[in-house]
TrEMBL record:
This is unspecific monooxygenase. PANTHER family: CYTOCHROME P450 2E1 (PTHR24300:SF356), CYTOCHROME P450 508A4-RELATED (PTHR24300). The gene is CYP2C313. InterPro entries: Cyt_P450, Cyt_P450_E_grp-I, Cyt_P450_sf, Cytochrome_P450_fam2. GO terms for biological process: epoxygenase P450 pathway; xenobiotic metabolic process. It comes from Sphenodon punctatus. It is found in: Endoplasmic reticulum membrane; Microsome membrane. One of its GO terms (molecular function) is iron ion binding. The chain crosses the membrane at residues 6-24. GO terms for cellular component: endoplasmic reticulum membrane. Keywords: Endoplasmic reticulum, Heme, Iron, Membrane, Metal-binding, Microsome, Monooxygenase, Oxidoreductase, Transmembrane, Transmembrane helix.
Amino acid sequence: MEPLGASTFFLVICISCLLFFAVCKKVSGNGKLPPGPVPLPIIGNALQLKTKNLSKTLQKVSEKYGPVFTLYFGSERVVALYGYETVKEALIDRADEFAARGSLPMADKINKGLGVIFSNGERWKQLRRFTLTTLRNFGMGKKSIEERIQEEAQSLLEKFRETQKTPFDPTFLLSCATSNVICSVIFGKRYDYDDKKFLALMSLMNDNFQTMSSAWGQLYTLFPSLMDALPGPHHRIVKNNDTAKEFVSEEVEKHQASLDPSSPQDFIDCFLVRMEQEKHNSGSEFSIENLVMTTIDLFIAGTETTSTTLRYGILLLLKHPEIQGKVQEEIDHVIGQSRSPCMVDRSQMPYTDAVIHEIQRFIALIPISVPHAVTQDTPFRQYVIPKGTTIYPILSSVLHDSREFPNPEQFDPGHFLDKNGAFKKSDFFMPFSAGKSSLISALQPFNIIHIQDSLQQFVSPRDLRMYPGNETR
């Protein structure tokens, strides 16, 4: 048995060495692939990336290898873009070349290339164009959406008041409120905060984001085939998404039964009308499958980013009472106590506007952008990025750039104010990515308006005093 054991051990060593040298050869890429830390066979750079402080780890990698570097997530080669100039050059200046959606194993498994966020090619072009046009026609990013936000803010504020100043977790209330605004556009209705199916859906989506952010989700990104064979909480993500599909499919069936093609009432109606118009077009991407997945994409994009930003905003205002007081003073001066905030107030409230931008900059909610990809060998800087390579823009490197934001690790609304106290825009403000493949970025005006109206309305500093202990902070 000993000779067999020795032979097996020797064979494993040889195979590992061959894999190692094969990977090293791929890294060199004839000297054209961006440099990066040497990967290990099978696991790539997994051991070198400290996921608990990934931003700092990537900063150190960039300091050693430059603003464009290669990493291996398991066996998959990816190229990371670090810093404002690099991200801007790829996603804005050369948007067409970097517009494709990159590989994200769990999303690929769930979406199967459907929908508007994780699709590519002609499907993505058709669905993105239709989605943006339809949402804007229903008021997203415009003044016509503010009444829905104002009404929802009032409903949420009432729920806050019902707590009678006792401790409570606002997570689901914030999710329901922000989700109801997008629901009013895509489903044509809002849901009661006590609706069991709606609350269950919120819980499932929240669970998915937590699981994807956990070690289980990160391991799935590195080793999808292996993780598919292993038990663990990562399998809930698929089950949760199947439940979301059932929820949306039921709504689609209701819309099909009540549809008036001459008067579409919401996004689903418009999609169904377009389906009928293109039913004889073999190249059309307007199908029930794409409708369901696009609706889920919008549902998630219109809920999680805004509600999580609001939750962080509450915490930051609690931690910085002096900033809280200045915001309250501006709200009292411009809006007063007798009416709801509206979009025209924004231009008169530079400090509040700066605080909201600083919240998004400081928390860097999406530190690494949803992956992009190049569809052909692409010369970039002094390198050549091979066809099909996944691209990861590091957004935290832009949002925390000390050249644009002095003391970037500090929460300071002054980052968005000029010397006269007027609001100051920044090209470095990329909280949701940038470029053509970012639907969330394309709808950024809606997110800003939603967050601004919401913070002013139901988490103004005065209302924050409902949280016990805030008076002493």
